[in-house]
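Re: that backbone. Tokens:
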């Protein structure tokens, strides 16, 4: 490959995606769980029928960024819950490396299981895409916008009405402005265990006008 491009993510990209994830989200829960956990997590994402996953491949045929999400967040989290056996060993490995994670593990298991929460009823699940992760390598410039545009275009091509995501409220102005620049609107403010998060949404205006 001589030219840079975005394309759909495949299983062979997982190692590179995990590496970028760990660099971009160092200190966050999923990254703290370690490489084995993230590899299994992204395999589950790709196996989900409603996954939307794109990578940016540079001129040297190296994956330099990714954007991953899924149609029907509730359905995906149910699948993730059913995939517990695949995650047991990676979870135990992460806890052994960092015993302090055990509390966060149980908190996240509860969150995934709590499908009747207020958040679960915010959107019509089958018409909603959740953008779960977008990240680029430290050397990449301007790739985030390219990936986000590809992700949005893919979602709209599937007749999705809304894209949603959450990101930190505090000390995160650059990221928040990034989404506002791309047309996302601040929908509400969520609090999870003291952590404040903006929920952003992007509405498919073409579908609204058709309705």
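Recovered sequence:
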């Amino acid at each position: 490959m001589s030219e840079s491009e975005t394309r759909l993510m495949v299983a062979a990209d997982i190692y590179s995606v995990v590496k970028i994830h760990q660099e971009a989200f160092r200190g966050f829960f999923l990254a703290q769980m370690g490489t084995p956990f993230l590899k299994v997590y992204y395999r589950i994402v790709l196996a989900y029928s409603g996954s939307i996953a794109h990578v940016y491949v540079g001129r040297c045929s190296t994956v330099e960024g990714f954007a991953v999400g899924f149609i029907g967040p509730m359905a995906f989290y149910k699948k993730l819950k059913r995939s517990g056996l695949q995650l047991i060993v990676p979870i135990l490995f992460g806890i052994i490396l960092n015993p302090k994670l055990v509390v966060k593990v149980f908190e996240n298991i509860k969150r995934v299981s709590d499908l009747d929460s207020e958040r679960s009823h915010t959107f019509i699940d089958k018409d909603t895409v959740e953008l779960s992760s977008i990240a680029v390598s430290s050397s990449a410039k301007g790739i985030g916008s390219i990936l986000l545009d590809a992700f949005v275009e893919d979602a709209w091509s599937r007749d999705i009405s809304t894209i949603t995501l959450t990101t930190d409220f505090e000390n995160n102005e650059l990221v928040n402005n990034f989404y506002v620049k791309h047309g996302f609107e601040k929908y509400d403010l969520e609090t999870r265990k003291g952590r404040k998060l903006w929920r952003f949404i992007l509405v498919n205006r073409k579908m609204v006008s058709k309705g």
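Strands lie at 5-8, 51-57, 63-71, 128-136, 162-168, 185-192, 195-203. The longest helix spans residues 143-157.
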